[in-house]
Amino acid sequence: AMYIGLIHPALEVYLLDRQGRVLQHSLAAPKLPLQQVDLAAVQALVNASLSGDYRSVQLPVYGDDPRVPGQPNLVSIAALPSGAQVQGYLYVVLRGAAASEIRAQNLGQSQFGPAWGLTLTAVALVGLIIVALQMTITGRLRRLAAQMQAFRQPDGAALLDSQGAKDEIDLVAQAAGLLQERVQQQFHLLEEGDRLRRELLSNITHDLHTPIANIQGYVETLLLGGDKLSPELRHQYLQTSMSHCQRLSRRVAELFELARLESGQAPAQLEPFCIADLLSDVVQSQQLSAQQRGVILCLAPDIDRQAQVLADIRLIERVLQNLVENALRHTPAQGRVELALQAQGGSIVVRVKDNGQGIASADLPHIFERYWSKRGNDAAAAVPSAAAGLGLAIVKRILALHGSRIDVSSVLREGTEFSFALPMARA
What we know:
Elements: H1 2-7, E1 12-16, E2 22-25, H2 43-51, E3 61-63, E4 73-82, E5 85-93, H3 97-107, H4 109-152, H5 168-225, H6 231-262, E6 271-274, H7 275-293, E7 296-299, E8 308-311, H8 313-329, E9 336-344, E10 347-354, H9 391-401, E11 407-411, E12 415-423
Parallel strand pairs: 7-9
Antiparallel strand pairs: 1-2, 1-5, 3-4, 4-5, 6-8, 9-10, 10-12, 11-12
Helix pairs in contact: 4-5, 5-6, 6-9, 7-8, 8-9
């Protein structure tokens, strides 16, 4: 309306909806006597504006004047399409209030009415052509904005709010700004991923280098010492070397296992089984290690021996082994590690509880990170992770494959409890 009003101040411009209701206008008066235009009277001109063929239209065209109800006036109209659907109409009254005053004062209505009407009709058609050209240009901007919006959709972002945009250029500017934010976020994620990769590589290198260096040192000592070493010392060196070989083998196996879990090559094979029997097997397999540490490892006295769960028995056994090893490693002599079960709705909650050194509350969010360990001099607040290893990271990943999660609660110097839920198997 503002653009056509600049062409000639005598034109009165109205923006109509699809039913002919006046949405906006170029008049100074805030309220119009007529709030809806009869579109049937100008339907031929509407059809011509959609087809682009004005040869069948008989000019001039008269229609409702919202400023003066009941007095048809010389008008022009054009549909405002959005794609293939009409969204509204641009309605122009050619003989507006200013035109009527000029005609009455200077020319006289009876002498120059037809010529004046043809002149205004020509001006209106020129105005409509200018609007059509403008819509062609802005249409390309709208398509560009839609493409930029579509580029943002895979991350679940909402569409732009076109209500806050003054025109299509504002809409494109908003989309460009949001796209820039997304690119910056992606760069930050890449930088963080690269940092974590370097840290992981450094930790893995250190974790593998230490046992290899120790094995090499003992083997070199055995080779240089030869028969000079006593049988007892040779046996001790060989035993130590074997211990480091076993540690190295465990680390390599953990790396392969975690890589396989994260790559999706090890899907969970769900089957019903008795979880109490599995807990008993784990306790039995770790009993020797617990006795060597002077720690009591047992099942809770009220454990449900009939509880059945639906899960991958091999992967859940790995979870329990890691949690029990972790608890034994961080529970002092005369301590206690207990495994328990609890029915909760349609799930069975498995708990591994110890009365060891505990975890500081600030460290709890980090203990499932790969190779994360407590930094600082507070030995009593050390994190009971796998000594900067992968045990708890593997636990978290396995439970994620089961649609579950690992929860932890701990009090420093009093103990820690890990728990997770598995779906109860239906009879």
